[in-house]
Amino acid sequence: MKIYWTKINRIIDETPEVKTYMLDRPEGFEWEEGSHTHMAFEGFNAGEKPNRSLIRHMSISTLPHEGAIGITTRIREQCSEFKAILREMKVGDEVAIFKTHSNVPLKREDKNVYLLSSGVGLATFRPLVLDFFERADGVNQIHSLNIDSSKKFLFPDVFGAAPEQKFTSRFVVNRNEYYEELKNLAADGEGLFYVVGSDEFLRQNIDVLRRVGVRPEQIMLDKREGQLAEFLPVDATVMR
């Protein structure tokens, strides 16, 4: 496993609780849209076993051509040890990144794509939308649906509707609105549904989609292959 040590070169306040940490791109570090990485702080590997409180699985919210590795995260007043440390970090501080992989690259199968997210989960989808804007072949259109009760919606410059580019977007602040909209989207029997959020959010979305006949292979989750069966059993049948 190769560990890249890199520096924070910019910190962007996206909302009062959400920050994007822009990291220098180390030589040889590559990623694609929908990627996540492991981010860690000094001392995480000092002992016989890694200190997991200093490591966090994070989505990358930028594309390589943007020149920096963007890590977007919500940091509340009451937070984990990891985020408490991150909150105090400054430009020039070093972090480690390793084990980078994409579970949700943009599939180009000439279908409609639906991006379903909760809160800061939208960060995973930002690179997919930018990739689509740059190269639209193989994708009919994309629709993003995000729920965030804070009403502080992320990345308005990217997720503003752009129907001329076959991209539409909707933000909602409550679950009733969200799931009503999801039921309408699920009427597309051949669409691809990408879901990012908490495990509970994933299960709720899968339940709605499966009840109207969406097949497991149409549902994309930001989970490792070994975890997928927990959410989408291979022998799953349509629920009625």
UniProtKB/TrEMBL annotation:
Identify the InterPro entries for this entry. FAD-bd_FR_type (IPR017927), FNR_nucleotide-bd (IPR039261), Riboflavin_synthase-like_b-brl (IPR017938)
- What is the recorded name of this protein? Ferredoxin--NADP+ reductase
Instruction: Give the record's keywords alphabetically.
Output: Oxidoreductase
| Segments traversing the membrane | none
GO MF, one example: ferredoxin-NADP+ reductase activity
Q: What class of enzyme is it?
A: oxidoreductase
* FAD-binding FR-type domain: residues covered: 1-107
Name the Enzyme Commission number(s) assigned to this protein. Answer: 1.18.1.2
Source organism phylogeny: Bacteria, Bacillati, Bacillota, Bacilli, Bacillales
